[in-house]
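Propose amino acids for all 136 sites.
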C-alpha cells in the first residue's frame, strides 16, 4: 500500500495523474480498512465493485479447477482456499463497512466468467454515471 501511495504521489507531482478529473479502476486494493483510510488522502472513491460469492462450496470448486488448469497446485489445496476465505472475512470484508452503502455495487460472482464480466462492466458504468456530475 505504501508503494501505491508513493507512486500516486509521484504521478500527481509529475502531472501524469490528475485526481480531480481522472478515473482509476483499482483491482484488489484496498484490502483492509486501514488501507482504505490511507487512500482517502490521494483519491476519492466513487464506487466499490463487490464480487459477491454467496456459495462458498461452488467457489472452492471453481478456484480448485482454475488452480489445476493454471498448474498452481498449492492454490488447488482446499484447506488453503478455505483459509483464504477466512482471511478475507476477517481482513477485507470490513472495507465494505468503511464506504457508504450507496457506493457499494454488488455483482454475483457465481455465474460463468463472461457473465460476471458483463455484469461488472454494467455496474461500473452505473456507478460512474451516478457518482459524477453531468458533463464531468
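Proposal:
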Amino acid at each position: 500500500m505504501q508503494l501505491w501511495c508513493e507512486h500516486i504521489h509521484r504521478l500527481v507531482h509529475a502531472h501524469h495523474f490528475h485526481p480531480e478529473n481522472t478515473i482509476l479502476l483499482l483491482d484488489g486494493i484496498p484490502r483492509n480498512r486501514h488501507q482504505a483510510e490511507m487512500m482517502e488522502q490521494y483519491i476519492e472513491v466513487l464506487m466499490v465493485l463487490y464480487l459477491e460469492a454467496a456459495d462458498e462450496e461452488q467457489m472452492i470448486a471453481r478456484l480448485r479447477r482454475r488452480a489445476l488448469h493454471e498448474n498452481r497446485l498449492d492454490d488447488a489445496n482446499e484447506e488453503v482456499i478455505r483459509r483464504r476465505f477466512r482471511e478475507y472475512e476477517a481482513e477485507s470484508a470490513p472495507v465494505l463497512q468503511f464506504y457508504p452503502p450507496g457506493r457499494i455495487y454488488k455483482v454475483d460472482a457465481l455465474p460463468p466468467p463472461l457473465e460476471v464480466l458483463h455484469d461488472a462492466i454494467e455496474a461500473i458504468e452505473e456507478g460512474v454515471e451516478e457518482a459524477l456530475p453531468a458533463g464531468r
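The chain has a mean pLDDT of 88. The two ends are 28 Å apart (CA to CA).
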